[in-house]
Specification:
This protein is mainly alpha-helical. It is built from 7 helices and 2 strands, in the order H-H-H-H-E-E-H-H-H. The N terminus is likely disordered.
Length: about 130
């Protein structure tokens, strides 16, 4: 079986943005809600499906939802226990990849599903 991925956590900057900072940016906060909506409605809403399918970043935090500067801001936001959103995404991706690797032995379908795999993280992060 493939080796499991390991992570190298880093400490967030002292002046890292918080969720409250994101809420103060009404445009970005709206975009977050559109993104969460699309994750929730991926299988039932063709527009949601289309937007999510156009994302090329493995973290799904990129265009068409967020500009590069917004991505930087979002990923550096402290979410919980002094972890940045980027660290939480990495942990989630590693956990999902490890789980998928285990399932691969039994099945030929080993895709990660953004709607299922990331939506809970956004809710836990108090985004919506």
């Amino acid at each position: 079986m493939a080796d499991q991925l390991t992570e190298t956590p880093s400490l967030p900057a002292q002046n890292a943005p918080t969720i409250q900072d994101l809420q103060a940016n009404k445009t970005l906060w709206y975009k977050l809600h559109v993104f969460i909506h699309d994750l929730h409605n991926f299988s039932t809403n063709p527009s949601s499906h289309s937007r999510l399918d156009s994302v090329v970043d493995p973290s799904y935090i990129s265009l068409p939802y967020f500009t590069p500067s917004e991505v930087t801001l979002l990923k550096s936001t402290v979410i919980e226990n002094d972890k940045t959103f980027e660290q939480i995404i990495q942990e989630t991706l590693i956990e999902r990849l490890n789980r998928t690797t285990k399932k691969r032995v039994e099945s030929s379908d080993c895709r990660t599903c953004a709607a299922h795999d990331f939506c809970a993280d956004f809710r836990e992060g108090a985004w919506d």
